[in-house]
């Protein structure tokens, strides 16, 4: 598997069912915030994000919020959820995975990184030996730097989706619970 290839692609993080993770031996997720759970503009979790996180919790999946964003953004988002978090996580550094393993007493192969960016979220998963789940970004209101990264990642995502239809879950296909 290439350094930047995800293991799976979902049209939304909220389409990932707990059983999809647990069947693969995953009991811990490292979650990105911006454009994965909410848009850049949403400071606190939406009802949808809240519900999905609770669903993971009910299924005994440990959660670490890991964002490259600044402390204020990350703490304001994670605190209402009562979740541990890392800000300035420097993804694609594997730091967030190492911290999750220490925090929850799990191995990297029991961890899934879920995020919308190839070069940060997927890079982090690959470096740290975790499952890499790429999600479609929630919206396109992104700054110039992110737009540039999107242009760079587009061929990687396109190729993956073309060659791995069985690993792509879009419009809730393949969801069983
Ligand atoms: Mg993101």
Short account of what is shown:
By secondary structure, the protein is of the alpha/beta class. 37% of the residues lie in helices and 15% in strands.
Can you offer a commentary on this structure?
With 177 residues, the protein is of the alpha/beta class. It has one domain (8-169): 3-Layer(aba) Sandwich (Rossmann fold). It is built from six helices and seven strands. Helix 2 links the parallel strand 2 (28-31) and strand 3. 38% of the residues are buried. Mean pLDDT is 93; it is low at 173-177. The chain binds magnesium ion. Residues 32, 34-36, 115-117 line the site of magnesium ion.
Portion in strands? 5-15%
What is the topology, as strand order, of the major beta sheet? 4-3-2-5-6-1-7
CATH topology: Rossmann fold
Please tally the helical runs, counting DSSP H or I stretches of 4 or more residues: 6
Chain-averaged pLDDT: 93
CATH A-level architecture? 3-Layer(aba) Sandwich
- N/C terminus separation: 28 Å
How many DSSP E strands?
7
Q: Output the CATH homologous superfamily.
A: HAD superfamily/HAD-like
In one word, what is the shape? globular
Number of domains: 1
How does the major sheet shape up? 7 strands, parallel
Ions, cofactors and other bound molecules? magnesium ion
């Amino acid at each position: 598997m290439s350094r930047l290839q995800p293991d799976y692609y979902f049209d939304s993080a909220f389409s990932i069912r707990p059983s999809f993770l647990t069947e693969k031996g995953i009991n811990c997720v490292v979650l990105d915030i911006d454009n994965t759970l909410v848009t850049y503009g949403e400071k606190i979790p939406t009802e949808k994000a809240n519900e999905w996180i609770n669903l993971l919790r009910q299924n005994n999946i440990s959660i670490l919020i890991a964002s490259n964003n600044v402390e204020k953004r990350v703490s304001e988002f994670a605190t209402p959820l009562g979740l541990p978090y890392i800000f300035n996580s420097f993804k694609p550094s594997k730091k967030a995975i190492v911290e999750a393993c220490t925090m929850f007493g799990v191995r990297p192969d029991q961890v899934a990184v879920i995020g919308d960016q190839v070069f940060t979220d997927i890079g982090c998963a690959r470096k740290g030996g975790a499952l890499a789940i790429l999600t479609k970004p929630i919206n396109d209101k992104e700054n110039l730097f992110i737009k540039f990264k999107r242009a760079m990642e587009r061929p990687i995502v396109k190729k993956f989706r073309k060659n791995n239809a069985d690993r792509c879950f879009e419009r809730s296909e393949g969801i069983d619970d």
